[in-house]
Amino acid sequence: MKKLSVKSNRSYDILIERGILSSCGELIKAVARGNKAMIISDSNVYPIYGGTVASSLESAGFAVCSHVFPAGEASKQLSSIAKMYDSLAENGFSRKDIIVALGGGVTGDMAGFAAATYQRGIDFIQIPTSLLAQVDSSVGAKTGVDIKQGKNLVGAFWQPSAVLIDPNTLKTLTPEFFSDGMAEVIKYGCIKSASLFERLEKENAADIIDEIILECVSIKKDVVERDEHESGERMLLNFGHTLGHSIEKAYGYTGITHGQAVGIGMVMMTSAAQNAGITEKGCAKRIADVLKKYSLPTCDKTPLKLITDGALGDKKASGDSINIVLLNKIGDSFTKRLKKSELYDFCSKGEII
Ligand SMILES: NC(=O)c1ccc[n+]([C@@H]2O[C@H](COP(=O)([O-])OP(=O)(O)OC[C@H]3O[C@@H](n4cnc5c(N)ncnc54)[C@H](O)[C@@H]3O)[C@@H](O)[C@H]2O)c1
Ligand SMILES: [Zn+2]
Question: Which CATH architecture has domain 175-347?
């Protein structure tokens, strides 16, 4: 079993092991304060893994109940959280009891937000089952929901009591969602690890996925430890996201996935920065090639002006300037502050790759 400890105002361990799902009860018992556990999961994941998790929790002495919501981003809204509060209250959950988030990023974000707010905060465990959730969303304590004005606009920072990662669960993930998670993996290589990036180029990620998960989680852990509330280094994790989020928005969040949009955003920014003499030549092509290798697109038909205007309206763009994340070279990233009025001109230096 691989173990990483995240130091924060509420520290927690991340445990990675194939088959950890069937021994999760004892591990959760070790950090829980009460004896009730509620599994929160979605309608795809619960039928596959809910039984294993429930029986392990029961064997460890928990009284177990479950709350299952319809799978998909469309569920990530306040009305779903209200239903979770109802389930928790109807089952007599107190502050000492624990929520077990079993699923992808939607489940983790929502169960985490319910945990952060029910009775002003109860404990929760992350058991991420999608690649995106295993390498990204389950670590870092961001929880929340979407509202009609935008994604993730309501939320809280709330640390889990533990994160339990079972790479075996990826076997049932659809290839599209595997690729989606790969965009974030490629992002980690770009911003922090040239050696990870080279492995993605040379090897088949699926064959070395346990090592990849460990490396990505280590990178995210280090970054969030140094910058828990996103005032500095954590911004590097937004590489590809400034334009990516805007592309997703332009599509109305249907017809393009988050990973696809982020991949396109990484290529656009890097190509522009290369032509501006900032990023080492050849990087944009390398990123595009590795995206293609993992079945992700590298360009999009959305007009650039629409993409940059959308990016300027993002919640992360404040005042008259915007922070963008650029590479010096693969594995070496930094943030640059641009005047909002300069973003379009800067990005228009990029080429389609
Ligand atoms: N909190 C953060 O720091 C953070 C970071 C990145 C993304 N996010 C959020 O994460 C969400 C996206 O995460 P996601 O892509 O995991 O979405 P998701 O939770 O909707 O999962 C994707 C799909 O895969 C299915 N699934 C998950 N695991 C499975 C498995 N093992 N077998 C079969 N099917 C499985 C789900 O039912 C769903 O249909 C977005 O809402 C995004 O905003 C949060
Ligand atoms: Zn992302």
Answer: Up-down Bundle (1.20)
